Amino acid sequence: MGSPEAQAAPRPRGRMSRDAHEWLWHDAPMIETGYFATGCFWGAERRFWQTPGVVETAVGYMGGSKPSPSYEDVCTGSTGHAEIVRVRFDTAATSYRKLLELFWEMHDPTTLNRQGNDVGTQYRSAIYYVGDSQREAAESTAALYGAAIAAQGHGPITTQIASAERHEFWEAEEYHQRYLEKNPKGYDCHANTGVRFPSELAPEIVVSGAYPIVIDEAALRARVDELSFEVLRRAATEQPFVGEYTDTETVGVYKCKACDNELFRSETKFHSGCGWPSFYAPTSSDAVELIEDRSLAPRVRVEVRCAACGSHLGHVFEGEGYDVPTDQRWCINSVSLVLQPK
Fold first, then answer.
1. Model confidence over 158-201: pLDDT tens digits?
2. How many domains is the chain partitioned into structurally?
3. Cα angle: 226, vertex 232, 238; to 5 degrees
4. Cα-Cα-Cα-Cα dihedral of 98, 100, 105, 106, to 10°?
5. Given 40, 256, 259, 309, which residue is catalytic?
6. What's 278's domain CATH number?
7. Is 256 marked active-site?
8. What is the CATH number of the domain that holds 80?
9. Distance in angstroms (rounded) separating the CA atoms of residues 341 and 252
């Protein structure tokens, strides 16, 4: 049937021309394109077309080896394609980051080649990015969401993140396009983790209150990576066993990444095996602030914040039986810290 892109019907905004892989929207310079796979594309497309700022959606196949595959071809699992939603959006009204947040929340990215009862490589979780900025956004939000779901007991993210430049998008058959608009009670299978993206965490665990050092959040966001910002100022959690300081034995002082306040010393650091840097005591009791944390209610934890600027550091646990002087484990995110070697 030829290239589905070439057969695409005229669109209501701008005119299109072919330039290598990607369509360019002339007279509509704020239009960008994203490609997302979250399992069955019917329900995913509806979620995207209902999103403010999205100007067009189409479903199709991407990431495989066979040119112009049919639905039947893809369903065999032999072509390597994933079911994809192509999303064109107005960057003046929404952002690629917002679409990524929706992407992560609408499905379960921890299940390999499966969503709910739909099993096969065509149902894999995937993002095909257009350009470096989309790649960076996909990778950084994957790290953030991975940390958020790990804190809730979910497994690692399995989402494929690859360049769209190397993969042709083949538009699916017409009856698949906006399927749930034609069949409102049609099949819409989307398993999800039930975990919100970290930027939307409940207000009670967002950093607030008066502290000696007032953090300029815009300046901090520009200075540190996105995961560090979300942990420090939105109480996210980095994934276990990946932090820079989890197993380091370097002698020195650990300071708050946000304000440089001295927090812990290497002499009190020990190997707990929990996956995060562990200390048995802070440098002083007034270096940190302890707050009751009910974000995982009914479980109650004790949150640790920097007493100087209010940034989130981690949690403290006691009575776990570690052979340390205080019988406490100060479980701290690596990204909240900066190690100053002696």
1. 999 999 998 999 999 999 999 999 998 888 877 899 888 876 44
2. 2
3. 65
4. 100
5. 40
6. 2.170.150.20
7. no
8. 3.30.1060.10
9. 4
- Phi-psi category of 116—alpha, beta or left, where left has phi over 0 and alpha has psi -120 to 50? left
For helices 226-234 and 132-151, the axis angle rounded to 10 degrees is 40
Residue 10 within any structural domain of the chain: no
Domain boundary at 152, 182, 212, which? 182
Q: Tell me what pLDDT residue 196 has.
A: 87
227 and 168 fall within a common domain = no
Q: Residue 91: what pLDDT?
A: 87
Domain limits for position 240: 201-341
- Going through the chain in order, the beta strands assigned E by DSSP cover 15-19, 22-26, 31-38, 54-62, 82-90, 114-115, 118-119, 125-129, 160-163, 170-171, 252-256, 262-265, 269-270, 278-279, 288-293, 301-306, 312-318, 328-332, 337-341
Does residue 293 lie within any of the structural domains?
Answer: yes
Query: Which amino acid type is present at position 195?
Result: V
Q: What is the pLDDT of residue 259?
A: 97
8 part of a folded domain: no
Is the entire prediction scored with pTM above 0.85? Answer: no
Asked, for residue 190, whether it belongs to a domain, the answer is no
